[in-house]
Amino acid sequence: MALPLSKVQKLPAQPAMAQLDGRSRRSERSRALHRFLRYRPGVVGGFIVLALVFIALLAPIIVPYSPTEKVGSRADPPSADFLLGNDEIGRDVLSRLIYGTRVALVVGIGAIAIAVAIGVVIGAASGYFGGKVDTLLSRVVDTLMAFPLLALLVTLAALFDPSLRNVVIVIGVTVWASYARVVRADVMSLREREFVLAARSIGAGDARIIGRHILPNIVGPVIVLASLDIGSIIILESALSFLGLGVRPPTPSWGGMLSAGRSLLRNAPHIAVAPGIAIMVTVLAFNLLGDGLRDALDPRQRD
């Protein structure tokens, strides 16, 4: 029995549209990758970040000495046996610097994950529901952003025992406000778009609309902001450790190494110079990577 002409024409339409949609997504991903690779500083920053990740993962294998035990004379300058010298106790600076990479990345990535999770939930709820919900959550965000960040961090860190876990939590629950603001603005512009109205018209619930239709469209700006903020969080952790409110000694931390080396800055500058350079290079690498991701994921960019 022959099918009506209208049904014959409709049969291949959906697979064709699905193929075109898949091709357009692959094409957009390829264009984003091309834009990222075209920005050379971002590529360099990405390579440095990958190198830091490998150093952190392979730290127990590549360190020449124990990072917590005395292996030489105190404050010895760099030599063939100790490439970056020894610290004020006699521990190998290079070994402590390598293990400090773990602390920096764990704090940076862990705190960002907490901040993004809180900020996305608060910002999405505020932007999508509006009204009294938006007013209440916006006042919470404004109140948090009104406090000086470092003073708030020092106050919260002083209430808990110094540890890696507490530093991650304290920084994470302190810096989420900027993510809430970005997500709120994007959600407010998306909630009246046609695809959201169509989902609402067929009976989709608010949670499904937010999770399936709105959040996937704000991933790009959140990733860019997170990559740019990791460097700032590493500086915050270093500041807390410098003040004695961060990671508990003898766990190696770049901020703690800076604090320990400041009293010997004239006679043994290598103790403070090495972690200072490590912080500078790491923050610069994440900033360059964030700039590259911003160029790649910005929909306004054109090849």
Fold and architecture overview:
It is a single chain. This protein has a single domain (33-297), classed as MetI-like fold (Orthogonal Bundle), CATH 1.10.3720.10. The protein is elongated and about 75 Å long. It is built from 14 helices and no strands. Mean pLDDT is 84; it is low at 5-18. The chain has helices at residues 5-10, 13-38, 40-57, 59-62, 93-129, 131-146, 149-158, 164-172, 177-190, 194-201, 206-214, 219-242, 254-261, 270-297. Helix 5 runs parallel beside helix 8. It is mainly alpha-helical and 303 residues long.
Secondary structure topology:
Blueprint lengths: L4 H6 L2 H26 L1 H18 L1 H4 L30 H37 L1 H16 L2 H10 L5 H9 L4 H14 L3 H8 L4 H9 L4 H24 L11 H8 L8 H28 L6
Helix pairs in contact: 2-14, 3-5, 3-14, 5-6, 5-8, 5-9, 5-12, 5-14, 6-9, 10-11, 12-13, 12-14, 13-14
Query: What is the tally of beta strands?
Result: 0
**What is the alpha-carbon Rg in Å?**
25 Å
The number of helical elements comes to 14
For the record, the count of structural domains works out to: 1
Structural class label = mainly alpha
First and last CA, distance = 51 Å
Strand content: under 5%
Shape: elongated
**Mean pLDDT level:** 84
Give the structure's gist in a few sentences.
The protein is mostly helical. 72% of the residues lie in helices and 0% in strands.
